[in-house]
Design brief:
Length: 137
């Protein structure tokens, strides 16, 4: 089994140790992190030409996607709620095969983005998105 946050084998993973990047990231958001196993690892060794293409796509659509995420999920960090230094963050990083697409992006403050690094964590609050867009199930 593999860690769902970092993609390493669970026996080699240190995500759930106190003081790890995951623990510090989750503490900023006020929630705990339990083990999240995956059957397969994330994609490794993404070719540089694909990384360049994904980053170019992000640069071309940055303003529109930032505005859309702010409308859907609120103008604040998805993890801690800070409203300054917001950046677009890939939920599944490009380095692990994540696409530059609106459904793979979230708004994080610079500090949360730095702590998250290459971990795979979706912090978007879908209940807030339903309140903002008016979708009620």
């Amino acid at each position: 089994m593999y860690c769902g946050y970092c993609g390493c084998l669970i026996r080699r993973c240190n995500c759930h140790e106190p003081g790890s990047d995951l623990a510090r990231f989750m503490a900023r958001g006020g929630r705990g992190a339990g083990p999240w196993p995956r059957a397969q690892p994330y994609k490794r060794a993404v070719p540089p030409q694909i990384k360049r293409r994904e980053r170019a796509t992000l640069r071309a659509r940055h303003e529109r996607w930032h505005r859309q995420l702010a409308e859907d999920f609120g103008e604040g960090c998805a993890n801690c709620g800070a409203t300054d230094s917001l950046v677009l963050d890939h939920i599944v990083p490009i380095a692990k095969g994540g696409p530059s697409a609106l459904d793979n992006l979230q708004l994080l403050c610079a500090e949360c983005n730095r702590l998250k690094g290459k971990l795979v964590i979706d912090c978007r609050d879908f209940t807030a998105a339903r309140r903002v867009t008016g979708d009620n199930d």
